[in-house]
Amino acid sequence: MTVIDGRTPAHDTTEPDGRAAGGPEGNERLTAATGAVLLLLFAAEGVTILFLGRLLTLHFFIGLLLTGPVVLKIGSTGYRFLRYYTGAPAYRRKGPPAPLLRLLGPLVVATSVAVLGTGVALALLGPDSGPVPVLLLHKASFVCWVAVMSVHVLAYLWRLPRLIGADLRRRPARHGTPAPLRAGRWSLLVLALGAGLAVALAGVHLVSAWTAR
């Protein structure tokens, strides 16, 4: 709070705990919205696995599209981790996730990167990828990812409606000010989807080597 000429205090937009930038609440809402998008995209990707012979092109396309939102979610969770462990007051007050979820966090990141990384490698290398068993690594990392993500989704799914709904509502927050940087959070999500779409459009033609085989 800042006093101007002895009159009514006004809100200081440079609060040291980061609330002016959205703070932990804004970070949580961004992570939730990104997680909801990823949940839908991964569900669609799962459907293509059931009919891979007919939906291989769509499988490739969605897999490449996922790269943008996955990078954004890793960034948002990594930012919270960094702010908490560097002692930012608002993030310290918010506290860390539950111990089990803290242990699963690195595994979620590692398996997600492994699934997408091996998928992109398969697209680039084609069916004749040489001695490296990339397809086997892709399948193994997918199995590990499903196991880890099942716990992760069950832990966080119930929070998504509240967090996303809070950001979509136009009702002003306390003191008559809107939630900080709401437009910025949704812009980041749209940008991540756009980046993923650009990657998918640029790389989906690589599936032709697999369909020819």
Give the strand tally. Answer: 0
Give the averaged pLDDT, no decimals.
83
Provide the low-confidence segments as ranges: 1-20, 172-178
Element order: H for helix, E for strand = HHHHHHHHH
Question: Can you characterise this structure?
Answer:
The chain is mostly helical. 72% of the residues lie in helices and 0% in strands. α1 runs antiparallel to α3, α1 (23-50) packs across α7 and α5 packs antiparallel against α6. The protein is globular, with a radius of gyration of 21 Å.
Secondary structure: elements and pairs:
Blueprint: H1 23-50, H2 52-65, H3 67-85, H4 89-94, H5 99-125, H6 134-156, H7 160-168, H8 182-203, H9 208-212
Protein name: DUF4405 domain-containing protein
Organism: Streptomyces sp. R39
Keywords: Membrane, Transmembrane, Transmembrane helix
Briefly characterize the structure.
With 213 residues, the chain is mainly alpha-helical. 72% of the residues lie in helices and 0% in strands.
Considering the chains and any ligands shown, give keywords for the structure.
213 residues; mainly alpha; 0% strand; disordered N terminus
